[in-house]
Protein: Beta-glucosidase
Amino acid sequence: MTTYDIFPGADGPEPQAPQRADFGPDFLWGCATSSYQIEGAGTVDGRVESIWDRFAATPGKIRDGSSGVHACDHYHRWPQDLDIGRDLGLNAYRFSIAWPRIFDGRSREPNAKGLDFYDRLVDGMLERGLQPWATLYHWDLPQWLQDRGGWASRDTVDAFVDLADVVTRRLGDRVGHWITHNEPWCTAIIGNYEGWHAPGLTDLGTALQVAHHVLLSHGRAVPVIRANVPGAQVGISLSLHPLRPASAAPEDVAAMERHDGLRYRWFLDPLYGRGYPEATLAQVGAAAPVVLPGDLDDIAVPTDFLGVNYYFPETVAHDPDHGPLGARILPAQGEITAMGWPVAPQGLSELLARVDRDYRPGPLYVTENGSCYDDVVTGDGSVRDVARRRYLMRHLAALRQAVADGVPVKGYFAWSLLDNFEWAEGYLRRFGLVHVDYATQERRLKDSAKWYRTFLRGG
Ligand code: FCB
Structure:
């Protein structure tokens, strides 16, 4: 059993401000976004309904009753948004493909207008010196696929491989970096067991079957992407949390280990050839997924990098009445963001070091990291998001520590370029470096964006 330090609380002395030069000349500096959260244009150019449109239309599911149908109207305003990315000094940009723009469920042929949009977007990135990082699935499954069983159905694996094939054939001459899935945990567990994300189901067996099919679809898509894109760099992005036991008591430490089995090893072990963790399989019992011969070999396909999305550590307590594993995440203490998430920069260096040590996955990229605050536009039009600027600075200091410790982390994508549709929180939660006024669609650089720009200019 691994031993863990109890979370030491606040992060100690203010770090020395990081400098871009600390990371070397080849480090990638980006922002991350996702299709449903920013594109809008929900019914334009042949886009069909996604599970998030359906979920958002269900009363009570989204806190402000909103949806992504208009979002940031990035579908039309992308040139301005990419200009902002260029002007910040980014050299990479992470975006995702909206599957409902590509396949409508009626025709086997892809929707030309949907593909044309991403074609323009990618050209726009290249013209601005932004290396495109495309995510194939960031949660906006077409509703027609959900109607046929969604990710719980093995057919969705084949449908995803078709999507990967079509998209990489079209964009692969210009896009070299591909992320198959964003955060399979959220797709599977939040969407199908906890139920507060689309499609809103609450069954553990379904959730674990979904997780298996998501991982299988990753494994099956990777060789297709490689065949279409010579020299492609392909990986997957996982949402991971460093864990701390609520106390040093053996039952809390054991609860943390059980939680870790599902939260961390359930995804990483099969991706790196170890199959599903035995202890967790026993704990989930009849909810374990159906795994066919060959699946685990497919999932363990070699990849070129691992994407790590880091937001906060979790503190886990023994609670026999809570969840399938008798483990409960305690509410955060100390400094928190407007999401109630703890601010713990050192968790980033700790997490990267752990993943590297446990699996040796090769190059690591922080494919998301960011913070939510209740930003206000002041009379002079500025957004003084001091807390976000500090969050960013301290997390980059932690990243510098990881680099200095020899962890092979090669890039950082801030979540997010723009304020956007924050899933079940609707537009109530702002994560952007750039403020969006949803009534006018005006964009304004927050102070955090200006800090990032200064950092990227080497100032
Ligand atoms: C991540 C999601 C991303 C965004 C951030 C705040 O889990 O990948 O879309 O919602 O959280």
Observations:
- The chain is about 40% helix and 15% strand.
- The chain has one domain: 20-456.
- The radius of gyration is 21 Å.
